[in-house]
User: Fold these one by one.
Assistant:
Number 1:
Amino acid sequence: MATDPSSATGLHIQGLSLTDLAAEFGTPLYVYDADVVTRQYQDLRELLHPRLEIFYSLKANPNVAICALLGSLGARAEVSSLAELVTAQRAGITPDDIVFPGPGKTPDELVACLDAGIAAIVCESLDELALVDRLAGERGVTARVALRVNPNFSVKGAKLVMSGTSRQFGIDQETLLAQRDLAARFPSVRLVGFHIYMGTRVLEERVVAEHTERILEAAEQLADALGIPLELVDIGGGLGVPYFEGERTLDPAVLTALLNPLVEKFAADHPRTRLVMELGRYLTAPAGIYVTRVRYLKESRGERFAVVDGGTHHHMAAVGIGSFVKRNFPMRLLNRTATEDDQTWNIAGPLCTPNDTLGKKVSLPPLRAGDLVGVLQSGAYGPSASPVLFLSHGHPAEVLVHEGRALLVRERDGLDDLLGKQRTYDFHGTGGPAHAR
Ligand SMILES: *Cc1c(COP(=O)(O)O)cnc(C)c1O
């Protein structure tokens, strides 16, 4: 929400003007406020039961500097690809504080997990478990594995449901319960516990607590039934942030008041079990602004359009691709305070598709060419979750504002990045590449 206190607000971030940042680094540009990332983490960390460890889900924002910042605050890492694993390690997170779920891990990824000795490979199928066992056996090591369970229950309240139904994630709880000799069948695997992830974008504290209660119960039952020790229980997470009109901000005080007693009881019964909570969006989304510059203004059949230099290719979520109804992320004029009354604007991007609309009928002051229009709540699932190569625009620059300084944490893609890996050939003796030049 434009009024959300967790959003970076105003024309400045830590005293740096967005006008200056856009001039220095160009647009379109992602700007992240390290103070907001820090506050999101610490406000929760200070209130959360100390036994529940926060693992940062790199998928939300895989930038190595963001990961390093969170690591410096004490966050661990949840990764789901080889590059994310290496990112977490480069960010200074120790292997013992890394878990790796994901339904389609490659042998290379599994070997990298074994070589690094991470806290747990989270296996999502019995086939994968067999592969991990074989790879560990070949290397003469024992793999620490947590089993991802697709539970036989689901709790309402997540905008995106990951389990409790037919899903590619995890092993169905009933299937698992039928595998009584699991530990003996895979001699190079040490089963250390369970991972259950109910769903994401939860905006009610009560729902997170209900999820957690059910997950902790299920973990105990599964451990008993299968004879698996509970060295690690990953309760997922799914904490949401408000994007749209009418959505609310989770209150860490309310959340932890409900959650901590559950954790306390479980922790007392299981004094050596590591308890893992995975958070992506919650930690980084409120810290990011996607900054675009207005190129052209036009009217079409009675509606105002501002064509800006950013769009779908960097911020598919704000454009609303894949959603049934396009709802607007909070948007704001970033380069000046306007005194005129707001008007209704469509904010369109540069791509040649009508879908490329960052804002439909949003209220903004009268816009001028050259203005900066920002999309707030954009620090998670931005470029890394968007088709950055659409129309060969490439990845935007990313800047992290830390202690009043603007740090370039990712360079904008240039022509070499976009074209350097492509090959063409001399097809009809016309000289091929040279001719094409
Ligand atoms: C995507 C994902 C997360 C992070 O979800 P957020 O909504 O960003 O918090 C955590 N755990 C798993 C297994 C995921 O797939």
Number 2:
Amino acid sequence: MIEEKIIQIKKEISNNKLIIVSKYRTNEEIMLAYNIGHRDFGENRVQELIKKYNELPKDIRWHMIGHLQKNKVKHIIPFIYLIHSVDSTKLLSVINEKSIEHNKKTNCLIQVKIAKEETKFGFTQEMAYNLLNSKYTEYYPNVNICGLMGMATATNQNYQIENEFDNLYKIYSKYPKLNTLCMGMSQDYKIAIEKKSNMIRIGTYIFA
Ligand SMILES: *Cc1c(COP(=O)(O)O)cnc(C)c1O
């Protein structure tokens, strides 16, 4: 049962923040989690995110976790709680511009490429250091960069996943202004927690 899985996983992850990944799930399934008090949900497609935002209770905190196209930023700025998937400085500029238009400051995580797979979006580790060492609060005054997000390679080689999470923590630990290290999904959240993640994104484990 969805509710039991959520209660179990929240116990297991203690102080970590749980984002329930609700992509492809129905409003009814989301409401099962909502009705036991859960409020943080993640979606990876703008269209589906907007539809669910419109149909579901307004106190849900919506997290954008998938690749975000620049021309779609304006649609989510008015209500998004946290964008996990900022994968370029160009996207950061657009988020800043649209946030200024809406007179708000948008919470963002920098997505860093830690996996070996070529297909994943994100800043290289070098680009992440360049950004974090820059005067980014001056360049993007209406963006609040709260932390980093990363996805490990989908593999059953635990040492590789551990290594990749270590690499992300290494960057995170150098910047005390950051407070969110979002790593860990259904397959690897236990490793992520050992590696000092403080926010995890879980879909399949809860709903399947
Ligand atoms: C789908 C997705 C998840 C959740 O993955 P599960 O394996 O279903 O837990 C987490 N993060 C991102 C970016 C996703 O797209």
